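Recall that a protein's primary structure is simply its ordered list of amino acids. Everything else, from secondary elements to tertiary packing, is in principle encoded there. The following example makes that idea concrete.
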Amino acid sequence: MSRYTSATDADRREMLDAIGVGSVEELFRDIPEPVRQREPIALPDGMAEQDVYDHLRALAARNRDAEQEVTFAGGGMYDHYVPALIDSIIGRSEFLTPYTPYQPEISQGGLQVMFEFQTAISELTGLPVANASMYEGPSSVASAAYMARLDNRRSKFVVSRGVHPNSRETLATYAHAFGSTVVEVPLDGRGATHLGALAAAVDDDTSAVILQQPNFLGTVEDLGSLAEAAKSTGAVLVCAVDPLTLGILKPPGEFGVDVAVGEGQSLGNRLDFGGPSFGFFAATEKFLRRMPGRIAGETVDVDGKRGFVLTLQTREQHIRREKATHNICTAQALNALAGVIYLSWLGKRGVVELGELMLRRTAYAREALGAELVNPGPVVREFAIRVPNLDEVCERARAQGINPGHRLRYYYPEYEDCLLVAITERRTRKDIDRLAAVVRGVREEVPA
């Protein structure tokens, strides 16, 4: 018996006999020999505790976080200001310690948080039902597609190339597992979803059409026209939305979107080396009983006092496996709590003002950088530019403590020399001018 696995040699023998295998070696015989480790792992000798501390400290010092630079990186995760009251509240022990309301009747605080979060997401998206959060944006997109398949039994998903690459990858993984196909619709010359290609891709076997608003390049899509084409054969329309742009953009529910999902990091959650964050999921009432995750509801007790109940959860742990609509076992409740505190801090007027601020600064940045625009149409806080000698721009910017943005070539080979630039309220005019000076400086050195 080891310290970490409580199986003795006799236990292992009994388990092997139960499955009809002669040895552990035989159990792993299907693993190709080239990928098997036969020799002991080459580990150095052990270190004293303080040496380990120094070593780890040196490794940690190699990291560079968003607080140490002026960052224009976006692509789904953004450097927004996180007010101090969020840490003050989510750091309280009653919110930090609960894992999940297995005894929901005594978890009134947790249930109220879920209820308030659902209400905020429902108001933002213009859809009547929202759940208590998801893991993150990409799994929310894939879960919405799976829900559509359960609803209409069709096998094809049509997804815009403007949907976040991580979401498209997650969708492809899910689709493969339950025998569906994914058809990708290209972007047009202005960085928006190609309307004609979308209309041609949708047919009677299309289960769901997945769009993103604004799309990954930052383009504000013509959601009305796309929605009309997407729903022409009865497919479910799923739209991944950026919650902080919904203060100034029309809610997806008003375009006839059936399911709105998204990444919630920008709502009061720091970048923190990529996570954790949370996803959100809102839909029309038709999908109420098929929605993933949990839904908290409001009620009154026998004395007429306001209370909250765990109204619905359809994961396989709680109902018959064949009736389950998903297998997600953990809501990102603490991160979602940060999100609802953030929205409360902003208020309805603040969400609009923040959206207008990003709009103005983004417009200034597009002009100041003076580069060719990949998506010259409407944007809110993110846009793509074509930058000759992009490697040199990135190198000089880094040397000056500036993260210039995402290189699109990692996900879009067709945008080899393009940069995705994000503007939040933390990027001042002075910051933008610094990046613009780098871009202009390199451009002026490139022979015409």
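The radius of gyration is 25 Å. Residues 407 and 419 are 5 Å apart (CA to CA).
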